[in-house]
Write a structure and sequence with these properties.
The complex is a heterodimer. Chain A is of the alpha/beta class. Chain A contains 4 helices and 5 strands, in the order βαβαββαβα. The longest helix of chain B has 33 residues. The chains are: A alpha/beta, B alpha+beta.
Chain lengths: 155, 489
């Protein structure tokens, strides 16, 4: 399941999902901020409150998509990086669509199946505040180190 | 999930009601004789935005209230902005032409994308596959499999509207353009070219062309299914919307409030800011959603439908040529009288999409959009009322402040709230038509209840100002209130 990344990102899109005004729900966005500071190509970093149906078209232009989101699960080292399979099931609301279903929609409509991964980062606090909790910050650092590993292998 | 029952008296609960924006529940009561004795659409979310906005400075309102909804934040942003303009002493007619045009462009982009979302992703499965199609087929993935081109167009039309919003407000959801007395940024030539040249996304001419194609689709669908689409959940009602102040034309951003009854007689024609002298809101113990009505006509006769069907009924014409041509054809379906056919709301929605596409083109070609004359000032006041036509209908925001500009009172009447009585009536009527004296209640029967609700494109999050996940349930009760059957998705 290993992928290799370059800072240019080429045909890779990284989507940070969340809301930075809800403390650790902003982990997805903070992760993209950190990548930008590391010199990753900002044109291939996409900030989203939630995924929407039209994002199926957006991801159809890329070979690889990485979804980054906060989660409440207890994760080893505070994050997990997993391959994502597409799903043909569709939720009833259009307020948001899960990554696996977005992949399914992309495959159905655009006949494109980008390689997809989910980077989950464990969060702890979800109040109406802007800063990440201390523990979430540590998990963010761990997740960032993982991505840097993928980049260094590539170079 | 649908449970069967051998009991003669029943209560049906549909929960969650699917493919609507929000969390609600339908309860249908069936008496000992197998007749539907009553039916309710309960809105079970509660958020209380009107309360917690109190104590905030007035200029925060357009930013805060758009968090009511992820689908139509622009509508809330602009309704609040119109009200806040008045708090700094600027009435709509005194805004700079550029600010007005930029806000209008944003609004038309919002209506366009919202209507595209509803038609392609929520409503089209019912139309393409029919009301008896299996539940697993009634979704956009099945639409995509059956008609890829339709699905692609739906995605790109929605995207076009979202890109307009992003260009003007900085981001697609919860962006900001309005500031008290105007807007904080203008439009650049590069931004304008993006929507006109077609190099990166299909351009505005393509949007107009596709809007016409989709109208042709629904006309063709109507020709083949006219009996069902004309009669399903149809009932006479009043209709309410803004109309142009001078000529009564369709008006989505700023106008007079006009209501007509089922026969076309005018019930109301007032300056929008006079609304509070003409409307009251009733409450029921079984729903968090209020029931607005025109006080002159009372709770029983004073409620109105709002939204695309109402707007097509209340306006005297549509001031863009292609949409006006379609309006004339649409009016012929009701012999040029008021159209009370609920399912024609989908048709009306598509005509409005075309209208918005034409309006966007007009504005995109207007050089005044590029001016930097953005903000006006006036003598501060302590009350502001902003009313616009949101995608789902008339949206009212009212704010009062103290002398330091702190909000002391807020009242929001959103589109779905106006349609509360109408949706309840539709639910009851369909329930009576399809559930009376049937040996077995099936899932497709219950889907028909949802189809009736879905025609109104209700946004239950907006209506109760609620947050959270969006399911809806149908339950069957006996006449003693005991739960007999239930459907849960």
């Amino acid at each position: 399941m290993e992928i290799l990344l370059t800072k240019k990102l080429d045909k890779t899109l990284i989507i940070g999902i969340g809301n930075n005004t809800r403390q650790d729900d902003g982990l997805g966005w903070c992760f993209l901020d950190a990548l930008e500071k590391e010199g990753f190509n900002i044109d291939n970093l996409l900030y989203k409150y939630q995924l929407m149906v039209e994002d199926a078209e957006t991801i159809s232009y890329y070979d690889t998509v990485i979804f980054v989101d906060a989660c409440k699960e207890n994760l080893k080292n505070g994050f997990s990086f997993e391959t994502l399979q597409l799903s043909l099931k569709l939720e009833f609301t259009t307020h948001s669509i899960p990554p696996s279903q977005l992949l399914g929609l992309c495959n159905n409509v655009y006949i494109k199946k980008p390689k997809a991964y989910v980077l989950k980062i464990e969060g702890f606090e979800w109040d109406y505040q802007i800063n990440l909790s201390e523990k979430a910050n540590q998990n963010l650092e761990n997740a960032l180190a993982k991505i840097k590993t993928l980049t260094s292998k590539s170079s | 999930m649908l449970k069967s029952s051998k009991m003669k008296t029943k209560k049906i609960i549909i929960e969650p009601v699917t493919r609507v924006e929000g969390h609600g529940k339908v309860t249908i009561k069936i008496d000992e004789n197998g007749k539907v004795s009553n039916a309710y659409l309960h809105i079970v979310e509660f958020r209380g935005f009107e309360k917690f906005i109190q104590g905030h400075p007035y200029w925060e309102a357009p930013v805060l209230v758009q968090r009511l909804c992820g689908i139509c934040p622009v509508s809330h942003h602009l309704a609040a902005a119109k009200a806040i303009d008045q708090l700094v002493g600027v009435d709509p007619e005194n805004l700079s032409p550029t600010a007005t045009k930029l806000r209008r462009l944003l609004h038309y982009g919002q209506v366009f994308q919202s209507h595209a979302l509803h038609f392609f992703y929520l409503a089209s499965p019912d139309l393409l596959f029919g009301i008896n199609a299996p539940a697993e087929k009634r979704n956009i993935v099945a639409v995509a499999e059956a008609n890829k081109e339709l699905a692609k167009k739906g995605i790109l039309m929605r995207k076009f509207g979202q890109e307009i919003i992003k260009a003007l407000a900085g981001k697609k959801i919860h962006g900001i353009i309005a500031t008290p007395g105007g807007v904080h940024k203008t439009f650049t030539k590069e931004e304008r070219s993006y929507f006109l040249d077609g190099n990166q996304i299909p351009n505005i001419d393509t949007m107009i062309e596709w809007s016409q194609e989709i109208i042709n689709f629904i006309k063709s669908y109507h020709a083949q299914n006219s009996d069902w689409i004309n009669n399903f959940a149809a009932y006479p009602s009043n209709h309410l919307s803004l109309v142009n102040k001078e000529n009564g034309a369709m008006e989505l951003y700023d106008g007079r409030l006009r209501s007509i009854n089922f026969a076309g007689n005018e019930l109301l024609n007032i300056e929008d800011i006079e609304y509070k002298y003409h409307f009251k809101e009733a409450v029921e113990p079984w729903s968090f959603l209020k029931f607005p009505y025109m006080s002159k006509y009372g709770r029983k006769d004073g409620w109105s439908r709002v939204g695309p069907l109402a707007r097509l009924n209340t306006c005297t014409f549509i001031p863009t040529p292609l949409a006006e041509k379609e309006r004339i054809i649409f009016k012929q379906q009701s012999n040029n009288s008021v159209n009370n056919m609920t399912m024609h709301t989908h048709w009306a929605r598509l005509i409005e999409m075309l209208h918005c596409a034409e309006l966007m083109k007009e504005l995109l070609l207007d050089d005044e959009l590029l001016s930097d004359d953005l903000i006006r000032e006036g003598i501060p006041r302590t009350k502001g009322i902003g009313i616009i036509e949101a995608p789902r209908g008339t949206l009212i925001h009212e704010y009062h402040t103290d002398n330091q500009g702190i909000i002391t009172k807020c009242n929001l009447i959103v589109s779905t709230t106006h349609n509360n009585e109408a949706m309840n009536k539709a639910v009851k009527q369909v329930a009576e038509d399809i559930l009376t004296d049937v040996p077995e209640i099936t899932e497709p029967m219950l889907n028909q209840i949802e189809i009736a609700i879905r025609a109104y494109d209700p946004c239950l999050s907006c209506a109760t100002h609620a947050l959270g996940e969006m399911p809806l349930i149908v339950e069957i009760e006996d006449n003693h209130g005991n739960l007999i059957d239930q459907k849960v998705r």
